[in-house]
């Protein structure tokens, strides 16, 4: 009798899981299709509305998520997290300074390109250092195991590790950053929204591993929708509007850089990808972590360290909430200027995403 | 310059690797395995070549006029950087001074060989 009860409970649980998986797939595909439709049909209006509504909240949720993933004691990761935070702050400051210099000193295109290459080089080298630190952790673990197991050491030892290839790849990237200035910058604009999909994959692996095959199928809709957008808009004329806001939105999508490509296509692509990013951070990941109220910080590892840290974390969470409200006020008061400031400062969250992507492999 | 650069970069990269690896294979100290010598030949050039060929020219206002200055800077930077990289990856605390000196000499020799062959090609053939 108890076996029958256990089996029926297990069956009920499986069917609930399958229902949840199907709902997830249908919702994700539905949202992606709606985003593609709106991005293609009214890219400017859709961009204005979604950045207004979702830019601040998604950054706030990312901070909350990263706080929950940050270990309470850095231990052997002290160097990693110290360099990561210094890099995020330093590169953001450098990015903002470049933007200010370019505008106040009326730099030539060569000047802009040099600043862009310098920033891209710094970003690549910073990422290489983070990767090397992570690879170094794994190497130390495996060499400690080998030392315990081996009894006789050879006189000729290879000290070379596969992770040392980080440097040639990084330095080649630096070379490309100078050969093709601004390429990395616009590469980030279009590829960074997809980083959220990696975080979603990790959360599914932790909490709903049985959903992963369905998730990979859902991911296939993104290139299909992009292909549809490109086919429909490849020969579309540039977006109308010579006002500051329309030109800024087109510039953010690379209309000055990708000459010969319709700004309608570029803005639509950018807006579509940004909304995939917002959808993951504001819908998918929060629903997966449902049951954990985001503003309750007691369970966060960093908050468990001490009462002082609990207050620090609360300050970050609630302070971040205040910044979101301020952002909405700024958008309402002067949308173009606030958008410009936001996209300059928002590079910080892109860098933080890289940090946690590398740090949580 | 960018158009010419594309034609030059990959063949130059492969030829430089071939020349420098050949020298390192023979000249590095006996404490390094054959596999490590081959890897070093590829790895060191892979690190410094993009900087020398793609980054450094941007810092010379008139590249054609300051070609010799560029060569001087590049040919000092490349072996110096490669010696530092080689020490970081291939030397250990147990590596003796004699081996280190021989390795550094091998790296400088490899760079000199690739420079001389490249320059000869540029002057007499290209």
Q: What does this 3D model show about the protein?
A:
Chain A is mainly alpha-helical and 361 residues long. Chain A contains 14 helices and no strands. In chain A, helix 2 (43-69) crosses helix 14. The model of chain A is unreliable at 148-156 (pLDDT under 50). Chain B has helices at 2-27, 34-55, 67-90, 97-125. Chain B is elongated. In chain B, helix 1 packs across helix 4 (97-125). Chain B has 126 residues and is mainly α. The interface between A and B is medium-sized, with 21 and 25 residues.
Compose a concise summary of this entry.
The complex is a heterodimer of chains A (about 350) and B (about 130). Chain A is mainly alpha-helical and about 350 residues long. Chain A is built from 14 helices and no strands.
What are the defining features of this structure?
heterodimer; A: 361 residues; mainly alpha; 14 helices; 77% helix; 0% strand; B: 126 residues; 4 helices
Write the layout of secondary structure elements.
The complex is a heterodimer of chains A (361) and B (126).
Chain A: H1 2-41, H2 43-69, H3 78-104, H4 109-149, H5 166-179, H6 183-191, H7 195-207, H8 212-219, H9 221-233, H10 244-252, H11 263-288, H12 307-333, H13 335-345, H14 347-359
Chain B: H1 2-27, H2 34-55, H3 67-90, H4 97-125
Helix pairs in contact in B: 1-2, 1-4, 2-3, 3-4
Write the element-wise H/E pattern of chain B from the N-terminal end onward: HHHH
Total of helices of chain A = 14
Biggest sheet features of chain B: none
End-to-end distance of chain B: 16 Å
Give the uncertain stretches of chain B in residue-range form: none
Main pleated-sheet profile of chain A: none
Portion in strands of chain A: under 5%
Please give the oligomerization state of what you see.
Answer: heterodimer
* Share of helix of chain A, binned: over 70%
Which spans of chain A of ≥5 residues are poorly predicted at pLDDT below 50? 148-156
Shape of chain B: elongated
Order of helices and strands of chain A: HHHHHHHHHHHHHH
Classify the secondary structure makeup of chain A into a structural class: mainly alpha
What's the average pLDDT of chain A? 86
Helix content of chain B: over 70%
Structure class of chain B: mainly alpha
Largest interface: A-B, 21 and 25 residues
The first-to-last residue Cα distance of chain A is: 45 Å
DSSP E strands of chain B, number: 0
Rg of chain A, alpha carbons: 23 Å
Q: Count the strands of chain A?
A: 0
């Amino acid at each position: 009798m108890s076996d029958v009860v256990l089996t029926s409970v297990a069956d009920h649980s499986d069917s609930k899981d399958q229902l949840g998986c199907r709902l997830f797939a249908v919702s994700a595909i539905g949202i992606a299709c709606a985003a593609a439709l709106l991005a293609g049909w009214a890219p400017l209006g859709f961009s204005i509305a979604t950045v207004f509504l979702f830019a601040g909240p998604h950054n706030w949720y990312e901070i909350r998520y990263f706080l929950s993933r940050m270990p309470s004691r850095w231990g052997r990761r002290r160097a990693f997290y110290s360099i990561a935070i210094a890099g995020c702050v330093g590169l953001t400051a450098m990015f903002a300074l470049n933007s200010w210099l370019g505008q106040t000193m009326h730099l030539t295109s060569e000047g802009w390109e040099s600043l862009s290459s310098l920033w891209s080089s710094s970003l690549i080298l910073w990422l290489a250092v983070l990767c090397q630190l992570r690879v170094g952790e794994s190497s130390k673990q495996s060499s400690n195991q080998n030392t315990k197991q081996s009894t006789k050491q050879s006189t000729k030892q290879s000290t070379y590790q596969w992770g040392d290839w980080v440097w040639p790849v990084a330095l080649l990237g630096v070379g490309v950053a100078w050969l093709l200035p601004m390429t990395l910058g616009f590469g980030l604009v279009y590829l960074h929204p997809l980083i959220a999909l990696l975080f979603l994959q990790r959360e599914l692996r932790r909490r709903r591993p049985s959903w992963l095959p369905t998730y990979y199928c859902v991911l296939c809709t993104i290139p299909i929708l992009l292909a549809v957008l490109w086919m429909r808009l490849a020969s579309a004329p540039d977006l109308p509007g010579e006002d500051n806001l329309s030109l800024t939105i087109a510039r953010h999508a690379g209309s000055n850089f990708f000459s010969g490509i319709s700004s309608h296509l570029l803005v639509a692509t950018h807006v579509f990808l940004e909304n995939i990013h917002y959808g993951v951070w504001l819908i998918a990941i929060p629903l997966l972590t449902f049951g954990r109220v985001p503003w309750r910080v007691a369970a966060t590892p960093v908050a468990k360290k001490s009462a002082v840290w609990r207050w620090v974390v609360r300050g970050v969470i609630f302070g971040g909430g205040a910044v979101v409200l301020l952002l909405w006020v700024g958008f309402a008061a002067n949308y173009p200027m606030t958008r410009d400031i936001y996209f300059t400062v928002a590079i910080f969250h892109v860098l933080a995403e890289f940090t946690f992507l590398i740090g949580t492999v | 310059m960018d158009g010419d650069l594309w034609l030059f970069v990959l063949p130059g990269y492969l030829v430089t690797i071939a020349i420098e690896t050949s020298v390192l294979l023979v000249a590095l100290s006996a404490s390094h395995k054959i596999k490590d010598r081959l890897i070093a030949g590829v790895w060191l050039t892979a690190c410094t070549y993009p900087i020398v060929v793609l980054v450094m020219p941007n810092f010379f206002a008139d590249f054609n006029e300051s070609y010799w200055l560029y060569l001087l800077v590049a040919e000092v930077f490349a072996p110096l950087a490669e010696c530092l990289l080689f020490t970081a990856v291939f030397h250990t605390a147990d590596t003796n001074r004699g081996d280190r000196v021989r390795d550094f000499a091998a790296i400088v020799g490899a760079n000199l060989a690739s420079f001389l062959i490249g320059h000869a090609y540029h002057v007499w053939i290209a």
